[in-house]
Amino acid sequence: MSRRLGLVTLTHAILGSFGDIEAGIFNLMTVPLKVFFNESLTAHYGDVSAESFSLYFSTVASLLFVGIIIGAFTMGYLMDYIGRKPTAVILRSSLGVVSGLCMFIAKPLMCFELFSLGHFLAGIVCAFRIVLVIYMAECSPDNLRGLTSVAMSSGSVLAMVIVTPLCLPSVLGNAELWICLPAICSVMALLHLSIAVFFPQSPKHLYIYNHDTPRSKESVLFYHGSVANFDAIEEEYDRERLLLTHGHTSLLEVISNRTLR
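-> structure tokens emitted (261 positions)
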């Protein structure tokens, strides 16, 4: 693995894990969030019954899955028409910053609706994680795609292992300090955006969709190193582009075709 590819992989694996943390805030901070929701509902709408509170709380919890569904249905279009990097880095990280800020300022403003918006956006960010993995796989040489994909997954797991103990009541998991976790997520998302925005786009997307061979070659050299055989890579991209022009590809064709795999 080239030094540049290793740096890119670590950046996406560590800083890019902000989305997994944001998606887990509701479960990790359930107790202090119930206190906050109760205070916010009482301040704005007066006393609410236990049944009404449970309904509000459950509705907000489900917004994450609504965001995931919307993200899943839109990411394919965004990947193809604005690109892997703009979707996985610029759009995803920007949404991550906004999501964390909404959750953070919800408490001082005593507005559970803002937290709900942040939780919804966290679902979209969570879905776009798949785009980040695809982007990283397309930037990696064939023999390293498995390694970079595992590194991306390991980064998310490691982030959750580190964050979970911080959610204990004696640390951040209390009514006063729970907002520190979404603040951390916003900082991670901002750092990820600030660093990863300088990485080249996916060479495959540049070649197949943008028909930009010079920039695709530059991207290959950046990620694969000077030993990269661009002629062989170009031939592989040409085969894939030819297959894509035939329309929809079945799962059986993907499994049986080495280029698509």
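The two ends are 21 Å apart (CA to CA).
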